Amino acid sequence: MSFSDKVVIVTGASSGIGAATALLFSKEKANVVIVGRNEAKLKVVTAQCEEVGNKPLVIRADVSDDDAAARIINETIEKYGKLDVLVNNAGFVRGGSLMDGKILQAYDDLIDTNLRAVICLTQLATPHLIKSRGNIINISSVAGGKTLRSNYFLAYGISKAGLNFFSQGAATELAEHGVRVNVISPGPVVSDIFENSKLDSDFIKNYKINTMGDRISSSEEVGHMILYLASDKAAGMTGMLTVILSAMSFSDKVVIVTGASSGIGAATALLFSKEKANVVIVGRNEAKLKVVTAQCEEVGNKPLVIRADVSDDDEAARIINETIEKYGKLDVLVNNAGIMRSGTLVDGRAVQSFDEMVKTNVRAVINLTQLATPHIIKTKGNIINISSVAGMRVLRGNIFLAYGMTKAALNYFSEACAKELASYGVRVNGICPGPVVTDILENSKIKMEELKDAKMSTISDRSSTSEEIGNLILYLASDKAVGMTGSNYVIDNGLLVLN
């Protein structure tokens, strides 16, 4: 990804996620504005950025001070004349619970920096981001989405829950102006946030946050996700909470993509081919598979083409067997094949449409994943399942009732697989697109008037391209997403926020 000539503000940039993010943007030739309070640490980050890119603009400021926040924006515009990306990363932790009597003190300490400062800085930056049709990325925490086992982080979680809501509200308001807003909620990250937290040292020593991967993310991992969300490759992602690109290499990796004759599958196969992967394309339409094969050959290795129906158990076994026979291993499985049918309780087609879809949308994924598991374990590989926002929320019109049920089941399966396979070093994630420009509707037997009644509108007033979904697939399959497993990632142009 190139951010050449882009102007990026990163708050909390003196260490941790902020410092790592500033360095990554500098490597991509952005004009970076680093904001923090620790002058000595800011000098270190400045030197690191200069080694790989442009000299950053350094602003020593406390973001919780309104005058200082105004100065951050004013000095940025005065020097560069514009603003493209705002990364609201500054924040800190305080402990306090109802029982120890410290919760109100912790809340008072946290709220100005973790929430109010973000609102203030975002408000000041908004006119400039509208001009550049830019991006806002807010750094939250998993503590804002779910109460952790110890209530010691109650006040911290409250501030981050507020930040999550603000991010969705800002995305809704700014979408019509071409500005995307997203929030990242990391789990445990290697940083000095605990050192600066004033938490009891014995508590820090004894406190454990278990993860399926039994590891803690690096600041760079979160930084890579920030860059991805700020790039045009994430054009369809706004209003979303992502629980934790420069060029990625999949050279010598073996990747199976089902449903690869068109749409998301074809785009994904082409993207993996560009990254020099050995791609296995699976589909039923021979003519379309030939077209995809030719496209892949133009940019990379000739793919292995397997014409098969994934819902047939024998053919599913053949897909895995032929892949291993040719390449000797399997690194990535993209379960993309799926079909759509309409049917409601009132029109009497709910059972019929469910029966048609469940074999391909759910059972085939379970079967192919089971067959692939021994090989994926050997390579410590990845499984990525393509689901839908229809599996996350009942949409208006209810014509997607049966389709949504199959995708809800797939979402559950993805999370369960991630839990079982984590100890073997295998990551499993799902992707839930909203409206995408593909031929799935042409093949769905759904009448146009039914689609009109469903009102699949988005706050961005656009549909994603297949390439946008493919870019997210590649990111999740890469080592840059090593801390991401067991989640279903939404790329819907804000459809769920609106509905």
From TrEMBL:
Keywords: Oxidoreductase. Coiled coil: none annotated. This is 3-dehydroecdysone 3alpha-reductase. GO terms for biological process: lipid metabolic process. GO terms for molecular function: oxidoreductase activity. Gene3D superfamilies: NAD(P)-binding Rossmann-like Domain (3.40.50.720). Residues 253-440 form the Ketoreductase domain. The lineage of its organism: Eukaryota, Metazoa, Ecdysozoa, Arthropoda, Hexapoda. SUPFAM superfamilies: NAD(P)-binding Rossmann-fold domains. It holds the Pfam family adh_short_C2. It comes from the Eukaryota. InterPro entries: KR_dom, NAD(P)-bd_dom_sf, Sc_DH/Rdtase_CS, SDR_fam.
